[in-house]
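Dear support,

I submitted the protein below through the web form. The confirmation email said the job was done, but the results page showed an empty box. After a refresh the structure appeared. I'm attaching both so you can tell me whether what I see now is the final result or a partial one.
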Amino acid sequence: MKRILCMTLMTVLAAGAFWGTPAEARDVPEILKSEDFRKLGLASFPWMKVTQSTRAAGMGDAFTAVSNDINAIFANPAGLVHLKRFGYQLSHTRWLVDTGFYSGAFAYRTGWGVLGVSVVNYVRTIFNPEGTGEMVKGGGTAVGVAYAFHATDKLGLGVRVVYVSETLHVDNMTSLVLDAGTHFYTGFRSSRIALAMRNFGPDTKVLAEDQKFLMPMNFDIGVAMEILGEMDEPNYLTVAFGSSYQVDYEQRWQIGSELWLSNAVALRAGYRFNHDLESFSFGAGFKGNWGGRTVLVDVAYTDVGELLDAPIRFSIGGSF
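What the results page shows now:
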């Protein structure tokens, strides 16, 4: 059974690698090979690309290979294999132009792997300066079920199936998407390499339009390692690098770091290259232990320039 799951995951990830292949090496129209062409605004459900992990956002989203707790359910489901028993998290994101996200997740280790559930609720408001006398509702919801397991003592594999629904006034569209990932320890010190495919699904017809749009698929590659100390020590520093290939944007890169002090306070920083809005970010985390139960509080700030209010993320979670 595990062999079949491994083959399925690698097939999905290989399909995702297509989107990361240079246009010159793909059979695509000549216009898409032009240096002046930029992939912008081609995907539906764009809010699904917004980071739901406060910890990951604080590291500039260079989190694919770092994923080692409940936050992995959003970034790379394979990272859930690091949960010892039970993990949970509740988060809020103050997003752009009076929009926001509320998300929650929990995961539990069984005798044959780790099972997890995630929920994301996206809330937005639409303004009409003159008013219509009618309330306009808009937003989206994504509910996912994840499973992760160890293929070997160094390789973790994971998948997440997500049901997505978006509403704009009286129109509604739904879809099923798949996330899949790998998390591999190389054997050189604590270095690890990770691959993650997210939002893999069928084309979607947006509202009443006849034209179909791609899902906001992306293929992430990441590496991470502790350069000072080790993860089982009170003080250690992790650095990470990531690259993201997206169907509706150019290739992106991220770098990030996380410094733990006395296994109680975490300081995070990161930078996103070639992103349309987000650039540098900072974050902090606070950990407490009571009766064998760990409680974590995280906060993150992301810069988006002077024209918009900066997104602020806050989460509380833990494990036992």
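Response: this is the final, complete result; the empty box was a page-load delay. The longest strand covers residues 171-185.
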